[in-house]
Amino acid sequence: MLNNQGRPTSAGETDGTTHATFTGNRALIIEEALLFESGRLEVTGVDIDEPEAFTPRLGGLERKVPIGLPGFAEPEAMRHFVRLSQKNFGIDTGLFPLGSCTMKHNPRLNEKIARLPGFADIHPLQPVSTVPGALAVIDHLAHYLKTLTGMPAVAMSPKAGAHGELCGMMAIKAAIAARGEGETRKVVLVPDSAHGTNPATAALIGFTVESIPARPDGTVDPADVRKALRPEVAAIMLTNPNTCGLFEKDIIAIAAAVHEAGAYFYCDGANFNAIVGKVRPGDLGVDAMHINLHKTFSTPHGGGGPGAGPVVLSEKLAPFAPFPYVVNARVLIEREEEVMNGETPFGRLTAFHGQMGMFTRALTYMLSHGADGMRQASEDAVLSANYIRVGLHDLMSAPFGDQPCMHEALFDDSWLKDTGVTTLDFAKAMIDEGYHPMTMYFPLVVHGAMLIEPTESESKASLDLFIATLRDLALAAKRGETARFSGAPYHAPRRRMDETRAARQPVLRWTPPEPVKDAAE
């Protein structure tokens, strides 16, 4: 059945009429209550014997009142979480176009390998002598990361992208201190087109951040970098490809200027998926770069699981890699007294040796793709983004002109002027069409930004449907169909919230509702 806009009717929608259901459910769209609303405090699905008398060892910090968690039978608990999972949008549900996030397909082969005994049940406190296979995996993966980046060293312990940034910048800070310039070089240059966490990372460890503006084509001008360079500058943090989806074509000149000034070049690797097998950052003059294994080499982030952010280091920074680090398949350096060859690590960044599950997935991805497969993945990611850019460029405005992009296509909101529709409205309407919205309002250098990254995972048919959907929404906005946008999403389990209020006045604890009094009272 088609509705009055020529589209198939959806759940809860008929030919002009709707009706409420007794349960609140809409066929297979189940209304799911909170655990605290549906569970029972006095029961549990597990029988646990009362403990024998004992003396607490918590120093007076033991719980004085019941914990207050609701109890369920196993079928109830299973149904609750399965129903919640059906309300989530994930990469296994459909195209996930979050720009700068690389939400690509996660091959099930990688998951199978990560769950093998010996990998899945390894414990970080096991003696090193019992885990030579794990060290071999780390060493093998490290070899490929160094090969792909053209860098001589890699720190494997950082747990995610921002953690990797911290590692790289701490190595730079340690190297500067070793030269006796720790008290003078306190400034870090961060282009406006850099990844969003870069300035926060620099500020966290005591640097002062100065921004470098983007030129009209969205890239960094070496002349602007040279103007900012002086003896107080410790480093530049540049993302390439940058968060406008553009390759910094003058990166070699920028690196040369930075090094001539005695500073270091940190390159954010969040967008490495666009250039794997095509460009080696080490050849561009990069001194440190983190790599999001959970983006570039499968296991997209966003699922609540662990990440991994190894940091490749240049020859100048290699001596400052943090503990612990793998020397080879049987040797792990964990503390300062074990350091060899006069190296001077800045210390311990994290307790253990990295994320084993991410290491096994990433290595499986690399081995199954091979060098040619990884290169093709990068080429296909760039092709997909440009296919979307061309498919929408006549309706949606690009802030830096109709130039080819890398792995993501960037649009601004100037095409929505006078329509009464905002970037947020447009994104919410995408939810009604069954798509996760793209990255909104980022990068900050673009007003009302819409950043779309399809990755290499999508087929042409998938991209064609996505483009057609966005074209339909764009035409509706230009026709003045504001009601389709202002109240969206209409078909999601929950309608649009007041996001400003939710951010400023979050409700972090469930409280039971006030009992309803009888009329006689």
Automatic annotation (TrEMBL):
Entry superkingdom: Bacteria
Coiled-coil intervals, chain numbering: none
UniProt KW keywords: Oxidoreductase, Pyridoxal phosphate
Catalytic activity: N(6)-[(R)-lipoyl]-L-lysyl-[glycine-cleavage complex H protein] + glycine + H(+) = N(6)-[(R)-S(8)-aminomethyldihydrolipoyl]-L-lysyl-[glycine-cleavage complex H protein] + CO2
UniProt keyword annotation of Oxidoreductase present: yes
Record SUPFAM superfamilies: PLP-dependent transferases (SSF53383)
Pfam families: Aminotran_5, GcvP2_C
Gene3D superfamilies: 6.20.440.10, Aspartate Aminotransferase, domain 1, Type I PLP-dependent aspartate aminotransferase-like (Major domain)
Span list, region Disordered: 1-20, 488-521
Oxidoreductase recorded as keyword: yes
Domain Aminotransferase class V: 183-302
Function summary: The glycine cleavage system catalyzes the degradation of glycine. The P protein binds the alpha-amino group of glycine through its pyridoxal phosphate cofactor; CO(2) is released and the remaining methylamine moiety is then transferred to the lipoamide cofactor of the H protein.
Protein name: glycine dehydrogenase (aminomethyl-transferring)
Species whose genome carries this gene: Labrys miyagiensis
High-level lineage: Bacteria, Pseudomonadati, Pseudomonadota, Alphaproteobacteria, Hyphomicrobiales
